[in-house]
Amino acid sequence: MDLSWSNDVIPLNKDEENATVDKSGKNDEEVNSLDFLNCEEKAQIFAWSQRSVGKVIFDYSATRLHGCSGRYFNAINSVKGFLIAILCGEYLFGVVVTKPVQIYGDCVADSNCFVFVLRENGIKKRRKFSIKEEDKEFAFTMGRHNSTKFFEVGKGDLKLYRKKTKNCLACEYNGKSFEYGEKRVNVLGSENRYGQIKVDRFVIFALEN
Description:
Elements: H1 28-32, H2 39-49, E1 52-59, H3 60-63, H4 70-77, E2 82-88, E3 91-97, E4 107-108, E5 114-120, E6 123-130, E7 140-142, E8 149-153, E9 158-163, E10 168-173, E11 195-199, E12 201-208
Antiparallel strand pairs: 1-12, 2-3, 2-12, 3-5, 4-7, 5-6, 7-8, 8-9, 9-10, 10-11
Organism: Entamoeba invadens IP1
Protein name: TLDc domain-containing protein
């Protein structure tokens, strides 16, 4: 099955650019994402990055966007650092980016960027993989406006996009730009360096100093 992403433009629903707010003043992302990362997992991110996990700024499950919309971009553009947590079945992994994203398609240089694993095969795991010095210029790439690709991490270590034909999210993974060590070839720890996996959900948190 071909899971290659594209930059095809997809029409967005009118309400996809507008967040809703409940009576507590929290937007729909915050309301639906309060328990996505538990306290211990947030503490682990702090131990790795020395930055606290703040509020939810985007939750795909609350929006079901068809592509890289203004709402998604504005969420990331509003903060100076962020964490993306990706849930795929029994795996919870993601990336920490400590620099701001300025424009669509922006390739962000970040020597402090790292990918991580918090759960693997349903079991608690705590693994951090720092970006290679020679690849820090390619730490995080924002998707183009209305493209099916949401983002890319490193030189293809993670690529998250929406498949038009299957109407689902997919994540390609590869082992290129991060220090995985001698016994691991990618963030998910699979035997093959390259692969793809269906994404159930991804949530973006602001990082606080």
